[in-house]
């Protein structure tokens, strides 16, 4: 059973809603509720709850009994005023999708999030994050545009007080300088890769068979530096802008430090 009450001027939810025991989806977005309606926490069969308040009254907390919604798979709390991810969300074992875009978040408990075995999609656009743990990139979908992102390397890139060349780029280059960034990445490859490594790198880029054939056919008579340039351009064309944080992380991960490059 589904119930859509979105885009109205609702100020309260009647307590009788608790009798809708088969309700699985409810959308109460863009209404005039002063706080999260507590009767909803007794709808234990809910799998999808949408409470996005772009054009409604915002909330910044959830009731403690929200944990009763143990069957939730999709939760949308976008366009509210949460400063932290509510603790009970990390205990929703079946959760697959969380949208907390356009709130006031600046951190997320990555360790607790990793315990959600079914979790796939996280949307954090329009918050106050300055960096993200690289483990978040393992999710199927991670949206984080419109944050106060800086390129300081996350702790994941720092190993025993050694910062890789790729990590240094996070400090030295702002993500809007697309051309300069690409040239510096290219130079790192040129300095560290042998001709033998180039073929291995092409495999690690997981290019399609068509792109691999394109690279091999067009690089036969090229010098090593030009081969690297061609390979990076093919990869970049498929991945999109290097200024995109997801792309930047993936390329930095592929580069690693000098020792990693030598043992590819």
TrEMBL record:
Gene3D superfamilies, A to Z: Death Domain, Fas (1.10.533.10), Ribonuclease Inhibitor (3.80.10.10)
Keywords, sorted A to Z: Leucine-rich repeat, Repeat
Gene Ontology BP annotations: signal transduction
Domain Death as annotated: residue spans: 197-264
Highest taxon of the lineage: Eukaryota
Database matches in InterPro entries: DEATH-like_dom_sf, Death_dom, Leu-rich_rpt, Leu-rich_rpt_4, Leu-rich_rpt_typical-subtyp, LRR_dom_sf, LRR_domain-containing
Annotated Gene Ontology cellular component terms: cytoplasm
Annotated protein name in UniProt: Death domain-containing protein
Taxonomic path: Eukaryota, Metazoa, Spiralia, Gnathifera, Rotifera
């Amino acid at each position: 059973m589904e119930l859509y009450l979105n885009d109205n001027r609702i100020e309260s939810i009647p307590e009788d809603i608790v009798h809708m025991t088969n309700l699985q989806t409810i959308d109460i977005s863009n209404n005039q509720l002063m706080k999260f309606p507590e009767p909803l926490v007794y709808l234990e069969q809910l799998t999808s709850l949408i409470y996005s308040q772009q054009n409604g009254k915002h909330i910044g907390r959830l009731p403690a009994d929200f944990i009763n919604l143990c069957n939730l798979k999709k939760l949308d709390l976008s366009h509210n005023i949460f400063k932290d991810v509510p603790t009970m969300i990390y205990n929703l074992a079946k959760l697959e999708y969380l949208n907390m875009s356009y709130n006031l978040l600046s951190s997320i408990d990555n360790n607790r999030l990793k315990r959600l075995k079914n979790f796939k999609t996280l949307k954090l656009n329009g918050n106050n994050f300055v960096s993200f743990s690289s483990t978040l990139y393992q999710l199927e979908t991670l949206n984080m545009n419109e944050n106060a992102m800086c390129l300081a390397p996350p702790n994941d890139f720092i190993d025993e007080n050694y910062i890789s060349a790729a990590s240094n780029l996070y400090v030295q280059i702002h993500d809007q300088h697309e051309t300069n960034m690409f040239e510096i990445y290219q130079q790192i490859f040129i300095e560290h890769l042998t001709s033998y490594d180039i073929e291995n790198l092409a495999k690690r880029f997981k290019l399609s068979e068509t792109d691999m054939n394109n690279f091999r056919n067009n690089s036969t008579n090229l010098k090593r530096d030009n081969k690297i340039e061609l390979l990076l351009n093919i990869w970049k064309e498929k991945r999109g802008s290097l200024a995109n944080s997801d792309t930047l992380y993936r390329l930095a991960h592929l580069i690693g430090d000098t020792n990693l490059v030598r043992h590819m």
